[in-house]
Amino acid sequence: MMDGQPYVLTTVDDVTDRMRAKKALIESNRRFAQVAESAGEWIWEVDADGRYSYSSPVVEEILGYTPEEIVGTYFYDHFEPGIKAELTKSVLAVFKEKKEVRHFFNPNLHKDGHIVMLESSGSPVLADDGTLLGYRGADLDMTDRIRMEKALEESRERYRLMLMNAKDGIMVNEFTKKGPGKFIEVNDTACRILGMTRDELEGLTLVDLDREETHQRAPGFVAELEKNRHAVFQIPYRPKTGTEKILDISVSILEIDGRPTMFSIVRDITGQVTTERALRTSEERFRALVETSPDMIWEIDPEGKFRYISPQIKNIMGYLPEEVVGKKTMDLVAEEGKAFASRELHKHAVSGQVNSLIEVPARHRNGHDMVIEIRSSRVTDSSGNLAGFRGVARDITDQRKAEEALKRANRQLTLLGSSTRHDSLNKITGILGYLRIVSMKCTDPEAKDFLLKTEASVVSLRSLVEFTRIYQDLGSQEPLWRDLDAVMPRLQVPKTIAFFSDVPGISVYADALLEKVFTNLLDNSVRHGEHVTGIRISSRMDGTTLVVVWEDNGIGIAASDKEKIFGRGYGKNTGMGLFLIREILTLTGISIRETGVPGSGARFEIVVPEGKYRLAGRT
Q1: Closest among 600, 589, 592 to 520, alpha carbons compared
Q2: For the sheet containing 245-256, what is the strand order?
Q3: What is the pLDDT of residues 149-180, one digit of tens each?
Q4: Residue-wise burial string across 361-396, b where 16 or more C-beta atoms lie within 10 A, e elsewhere
């Protein structure tokens, strides 16, 4: 009351800056959330006690827990139990000093129990008075990288052991524009062959090993290396002590870390050369060559009894040659393979086939099973009558085991790919669901636009993952004859497009995924033709070649793009459709090209070579 009259006292405060700051804070938090939600790293926040107050969704991919399961737990709850106490003490000491954390490696337990190695980085969050409020940072999953680094180190160790323990001399040196550079590595065997220590070899090059009178060959040797990246040569070599040797050196050039590097295998072939010289003057040279073969050389009479078997049978099957000569071939064949081997031998005798090849189960002298590959030819007398068989046999047991192991590995890889693809598609489906929910709830036009773009990218990603399933099946089955008219995608043609197929009575020898060729051509016409109302499939002969034509009345394909469109990843969608088409057709020697006129429609010509097509009524 003033002067007996009531008054209202009003205080006005300018809160513009405060409101602006609040709005900026909200916007900053929103942007942080967007970045954290889409980042490949695990973004987190903990309070001053180390308890998680925020976790980005990536934690589920890394540790198997959802953000909701992580928030409220302490960072040390997830450390590997064996070193949990030590790590916790170390990190809390950093908290106490309010230091930044950089590249801190720490093993954590995944939800399913396996160890995940994380690389953590974080910064302290401080109040205005300097009080520690907590930490904010990010973790990277380094498990695979550490595993690969360990594998690389093991590989290097295996290489070192192989180099040092090899029975052949191995020498490694750089290859420069001037020729062989100085030695980088030399194994013990090479030192022994050359009669020199590593210290004595240091500073020398491969050419330095050659005698002065043969140095004139060096330019030709270097030229051959530069041209073929491989050369084999022999040089006379006189060590400091002892008699002259003949060295056989096989040199290959490989790119190591972007630099040409020479790998040389050196053998002392003095004895071999001496023997070969003697053999050339000996009437027994042919027999000597047979008996030094790594394979078994044999000869049998028409009844299947051995007339001759080379000494290599001792190394391969454990028998001495004299134990086998006079016995029948069936005595070396496993019981379960005798009927098969007998039929094949009879078939070969009757057919007169040259250089016949069969595989038979055999049994080593010590009882273990083997697989022997036999290549044989008929032996005839002067009258042309069958006098027996002569050939080569080799042990392919390890080769067949390796092939079976490879098949098992391929099956495992296929299973892994299928499982990973299935899990990925489930994750993608979940992401798309979340994006759509968020999009429906979002009122910010700009943010909604970002969500729609994100959803489009995830849809594209799903298509790429689905493509891997198709590509995995490519070539996995034997090609077969397919009725061309039967694989046309009639049921998938939109009602707005008139579809006409004129390829009756034509069969094509192609991969089992041939249908994908025409469904992808249809998809290309619909997606990129813009105003396609008609599609026609026809065929014509071009000499002995069959040409199947797919054409539409859309906008066509620019001249500059006619070859690019078949490249992987080219195009507006996944870029895999036309690439897959070419891959499927190429498996059986069929090609495809685009010959349409831009503006008048696309025209794809599938060129089927002779022998890969059949026409009804023709043989």
Answers
A1: 592
A2: 179-186, 169-176, 259-268, 245-256, 230-237
A3: 888 787 777 767 766 677 788 888 877 777 67
A4: bbbeeeeeebbbbbebebbeeeeeeebbbebbbbbe
- Could you give the CA distance from residue 330 to residue 347 in angstroms, rounded to a whole number? 15
Mean pLDDT, all residues of the chain = 80
Cα–Cα distances in angstroms (integers) from residue 6 to residues 1, 9, 12, in the given order: 5, 10, 20
Quote the DSSP letter at residue 619: -
Banded model confidence at residue 618, pLDDT cuts 50, 70, 90: low
Give which of 480, 473, 478, 488 is closest to 509, Cα–Cα: 480
How far apart are alpha carbons 92 and 112 in whole angstroms?
27
Can you tell me the distance from the alpha carbon of 517 to that of 604, in angstroms, rounded to the nearest whole number?
11
Closest-CA residue to 353 (of 389, 319, 400): 389
Crossing angle, helix 577-586 and helix 445-473, to 10 degrees? 0
Residues 6+ apart with CB under 8 A from 605: 547, 548, 549, 592, 593, 594, 595
Residue 231's closest CA among 214, 249, 246?
A: 249
Q: Quick one: tokens of 558?
A: 């620019």
Burial class (CB in 10 A: 0-12, 13-18, 19+), 189: buried
Q: How far apart are CA 186 and CA 1, in angstroms?
A: 108
**Can you spell out the DSSP letters for 366-385?**
TS-EEEEEEEEEEEE-TTS-
Question: In what helix (H) or strand (E) does residue 309 lie, and over which residues does it extend?
Answer: strand 306-309
**Model pTM above 0.70:** no
- Alpha carbon 611 to chain centroid, angstroms: 32
* Confidence at 111, pLDDT banded by 50, 70, 90: very high
Q: Where are the beta strands (DSSP E) in 456-560?
A: 480-483, 498-501, 506-510, 534-542, 545-552
Residue 589 contacts by C-beta under 8 Å, 6 or more apart in sequence?
A: 609, 612
Q: Rounded distance, CA 211 to CA 241, Å?
A: 15
- Could you tell me the two tokens for 86? 């030590």
The Cα–Cα gap between 437 and 447 comes to 13
The pLDDT value given to residue 213: 47
Cα distance between residue 153 and residue 469, in whole Å? 34
Q: Which residue has the tokens 């099957």?
A: 317
Rounded Cα gap, residues 577 and 583, in angstroms: 10
Phi/psi of residue 414, each to 5°?
A: -65, -45
Mean pLDDT of 335-355: 72
3-state class (DSSP) for residue 387: strand
SS3 label, residue 514: helix
User: Is the pLDDT reported for residue 580 higher than 70?
Assistant: yes
- Residue 156, number of CB atoms within 10 A of its CB: 10
Q: How many CB atoms lie within 10 A of CB 8?
A: 4
Burial of residue 109, with CB atoms counted within 10 A of its CB: 0-12 exposed, 13-18 middle, 19 or more buried = middle
Q: Which two tokens stand for residue 397?
A: 């047991």
- For 343, the token pair is 């039929």
Beta strands in 26-100 (DSSP E): 42-47, 52-55
For residues 298 and 43, what is the distance between their CA atoms, to the nearest angstrom?
Answer: 72
Report CA-CA distances (Å) from 512 to 388, 475, 524. 45, 8, 21
